[in-house]
Each structure stands twice: as C-alpha cells, then as structure tokens.
User: Which sequence fits this backbone?
C-alpha cells in the first residue's frame, strides 16, 4: 500500500516539479548571461495560458498529428514513474527495465518526428529528420552507459541498479566516472540543450526541437511543452539516481522517503544550475559536429564498459 | 563485491583510466597547443600513479622514477615543445583530421585488442597494479594510431612521446619499473630525441615551407 502511495506521490511530484525545473534552469541561465531573469513560475503561466487557448489545426492534419502530444506526454510520464526519484519501492518499476526505458524515450521521439512531418511544412520535416539523427547517435551511447551500471549491479531493472549503487561501500569506480560524463553529453543532446540545440531560438538554420513543434498550438502545445519539461526532469532524476543515489529511500521506509524530498530538491537545484552553466560557457555547435559530440559520448561510455571489465571485475 | 580491492589499487586504476582517456583526447585534438598540454597532463598523471605504486610497495627507486617522470614529462618536454611551437610560428596550426569518429572507433577496437592481449600476461604478474597492463598496451597502440593519422611533424613527435608514456606505465604495472640505469638511459634518450627532432623541424620547414610530413613522400620536385 505504501508502495502504491509512494508511486502516486512520485508521479504527482514529477508533474508538479518538472516545469519548475525548467523555470529554474531558465532563471539561472539569465543570471549567468546578466539578463533580467523571467519569473521562476513562468512555465506554469505558460501552460495555464496554452491550456485555455483554442487549438488551430492545419487542414491536412491527420489523426496522428492530434494523438502525438498525448503519446509523447504519456511516454514521459511513464519514464518519470519508473525512474526512482524518492524511493526504490516502485510498483510500476517492473513494467519496464532500463532498456525498455530507452525504448520509451525512442517511442516518444518517433511520434513527435512523425507528427512534425505530418502537416508537410518544410520546417517540420527538417526538424524531424534532425531529431532522428541526434536520437540515432545518442541512443547507443545511452545504452552503453546503462550497460555499465547494469554490470555493476548485475541487473537491468532501474530500481535494483539504484538500490545496489546507493548501498555500496565507498569504492572508486573509474567506469562510473566515464559513464557519468557520457550520460551528461547524451542528456544535453536528448533534451535539446545548447551544444546541440538551442531551446531559446527560432532560427531556422539551427533549431531542432522547436522546428518540430512549430505547427502545434493550444492544449497540444501545452502538452508537448510539459512533456519536454518532464523529459528534462526524467533525465535529471536518472542521472542523480545512477551517479548520486545517496538519500533515495529503500522499501517500506516512509520516513526516509519524506526526507528524500528536500534532498531531491537540493540535488535538482544544483543540477539545474550546472546545466545552465554548461549552456552559458558553450557555444552551439554546427549540426554536422553533432556526430562528433555524440561519438565522443559513445566512446566514453564504451571505455567505461571496458575499464569495468578490465580493472574492476577481475582484480 | 569489490571490497577486496585495496584503496591504492583503486587509485592506480583511476590514474590508468585517466591516462587512457587522455590518450583518446590527444587522438581527437586538432590544435597543437592543447595537444602538448594534454601530453603534459598525461605525464603528470603517470607520475602520480608511479608515486602511488612507490608508496604502496616501498620501492625506493620508484620514487626516483616518479620524480623523473614529473620533471621530464610533465614539465621539461612540454616546455621544450611549447618553445619549439612558438619559434616555428605554428601555434595556430590546425590539423585537417579526417573523420574523428572513425578514428575513435578504430581506437576503441585497438583498446579491445590490447585488453584481450594483455589479460593472460597480466595473470602471470603478481604486482598490485597488474590490471593496468592492458591500459598501458592500449595507450601504446593509441599513440601509434596517432602517429599514423597525423600529417604534421609536431603531433607525430607528441605521439612518439605518448608511446613512451605507455611503455613506462607498462613497465611500472608489470614489474614495478625498470632498473634505475635503464630508466635514466630512456629518459635521456627521449630528451635528446626531442632536441634532435626540434632541429629537424627547422630543417623540414626550411626545405618545404611547412611542417607537413606528406611533402616528404615525394623524392624530387617533378
């Protein structure tokens, strides 16, 4: 029973916190670039406004175009539900292990790309193709990161991995360090962040994510924006759970779970600030440099795997 | 499950992993100055790992080699190379590397080969750092790859020096280092080699107006 309640609480917390995290990152970024920052709750105002507005659809929009926002939102919500943010006692966790989690992200990507191409505007198909390129390069790197952590904990279930990592002795894992850097690269690319994409511009030459959602309006756009926030939240929680798992509660420990909430807030706050810093000190790279960037991520993840095999298992 | 590995071995493993990472970073680096800095940093980490081995095993001569590595590879050689680059006016040279991701993938393949080759050898060894033998071999092979893929003279020399780093790591990890005389000899060799190659750089540039080695593949100006 506590498990179900905890699961429900984690989902509601994700829904509530995700736009806040986006707002926090935007605020940090504005501070670092010495601009006056938007209010912290700006994403909520945005969602509120969009949900009240009417939906304008293109004449030739197919049902796929209308269902895609719901599918994307559902995928991100499922991802948030199976990634342990507060407690590893998640009844939904057996629904998908880490490999299926990558698949859930992939499903959302396919739907949003198809919807972008559906109306037939040139920007939409351009964005959709770029998104598939980035995704195709980021996915193997993400899988390699997950294999490294799975080898340490002998399981591909997210909850088990986090349980093992959170309750280990203090051991230096060079492989985890490699995997952590690779994961940072992948999350930057997957969340349309600065070295790969710029979430703040609508410049036709560079945009990826924004190009795909140009045709959306009203509640559809609100759902997609919310899903993008949830994706950032999910990736942040996954990174925290894999590489900084301390403080995540175990099974049947309500008190620890309550204590995990402020800790999660602090960790997300620091993570958001670091993300804003990375976005400020880096310039956006050309789209053709993205394979190099994600190739490096893949390389680091494979090195982590190999180092794990060579140094840590046998010795 | 990993509690059996002592802390010193963990530190050595970490150093070795960083050395491998730096070898890859050097492979992908296009500019000359950062390349030399990376090489200097690799020397620093190498000295650190040797020092950890020395402290754990109480081998007096390893302190000497750690100090020598620090002095020579982390300070003196990068300094000489920096001066060479400045006096040759190639500070802003950018290598037109073809296809970094492909080179990286070849590098990964080399690492896998090196790890598999080194595994049975390192089982014969009883040193605390035997696990790093594979990484040492991989570093040597990556340095080879760097010498093959580069066309400019200075990155090739840096590759040569990085290979020596790898050999040194192999010596420390497999047998706790070589005798002092051999080590001093190698250190002196490397130093003299860099100085002679520095003279060569000037000759090459005088002859061809650039440090691009590919000019040397033609015997005559037809």
Assistant:
């Amino acid at each position: 029973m506590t498990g179900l309640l905890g699961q429900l609480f984690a989902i509601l917390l994700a829904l509530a916190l995700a736009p806040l995290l986006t707002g926090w990152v935007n605020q940090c970024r504005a501070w670092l670039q010495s601009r006056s920052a938007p209010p912290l709750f700006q994403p909520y105002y945005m969602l509120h406004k969009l949900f009240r507005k009417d939906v304008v659809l293109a004449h030739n929009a197919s049902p796929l175009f209308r269902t895609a926002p719901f599918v994307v939102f559902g995928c991100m919500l499922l991802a948030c539900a199976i990634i342990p943010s507060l407690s590893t006692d998640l009844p939904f966790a057996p629904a998908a292990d880490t490999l299926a989690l990558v698949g859930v992200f992939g499903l959302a990507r396919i739907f949003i790309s198809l919807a972008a191409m559906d109306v037939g505007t040139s920007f939409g198909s351009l964005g959709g193709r770029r998104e598939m390129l980035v995704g195709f390069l980021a996915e193997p790197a993400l899988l390699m990161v997950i294999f490294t952590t799975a080898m340490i904990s002998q399981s591909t279930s997210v909850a088990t991995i986090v349980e093992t990592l959170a309750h280990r002795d203090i051991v230096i894992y060079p492989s985890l360090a490699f995997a952590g850097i690779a994961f940072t690269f992948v999350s930057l690319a997957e969340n349309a962040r600065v070295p790969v994409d710029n979430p703040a511009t609508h410049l036709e030459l560079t945009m990826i994510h924004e190009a795909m959602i140009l045709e959306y309006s009203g509640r559809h756009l609100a759902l997609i924006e919310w899903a993008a926030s949830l994706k950032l939240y999910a990736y942040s929680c996954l990174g925290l759970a894999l590489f900084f798992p301390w403080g995540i509660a175990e099974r049947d420990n309500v008190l620890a779970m309550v204590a995990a909430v402020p800790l999660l807030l602090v960790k997300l706050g620091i993570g958001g600030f670091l993300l804003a810093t990375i976005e400020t000190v880096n310039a956006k790279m050309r789209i053709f440099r993205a394979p190099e960037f994600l190739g490096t991520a893949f390389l680091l993840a494979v090195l982590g795997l190999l180092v794990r095999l060579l140094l840590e298992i046998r010795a | 499950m990993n509690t059996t590995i002592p802390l010193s071995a963990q530190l050595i493993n970490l150093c070795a992993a960083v050395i491998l990472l730096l070898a890859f970073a050097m492979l992908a680096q296009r500019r000359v100055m950062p390349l030399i800095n990376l090489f200097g940093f690799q020397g620093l980490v190498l000295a650190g790992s040797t020092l950890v081995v020395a402290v754990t095993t109480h081998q007096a001569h390893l302190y000497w080699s750690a100090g020598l590595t620090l002095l020579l590879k982390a300070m003196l050689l990068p300094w000489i190379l920096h001066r060479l680059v400045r006096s040759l006016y190639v500070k802003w040279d950018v290598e037109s590397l073809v296809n970094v991701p492909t080179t990286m993938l070849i590098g990964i393949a080399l690492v896998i080969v090196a790890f598999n080759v080194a595994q049975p050898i390192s089982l014969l060894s009883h040193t605390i750092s035997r696990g790093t033998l594979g990484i040492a071999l991989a570093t040597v092979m990556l340095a080879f790859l760097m010498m093959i893929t580069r066309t400019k003279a200075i990155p090739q020399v840096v590759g040569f020096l990085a290979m020596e780093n790898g050999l040194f790591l192999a010596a420390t990890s497999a047998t706790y280092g070589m005798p002092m005389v051999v080590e001093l000899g190698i250190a002196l060799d490397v130093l003299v080699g860099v100085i002679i190659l520095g003279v060569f750089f000037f000759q090459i540039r005088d002859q061809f107006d650039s440090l691009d080695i590919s000019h040397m593949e033609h015997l005559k100006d037809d």
The interface with chain B takes residues 168-169, 171-172, 174-175, 177-178, 291-292, 295-296, 299-300, 302-303, 306-307, 309-312, 314-315 of chain A (CB under 8 Å).
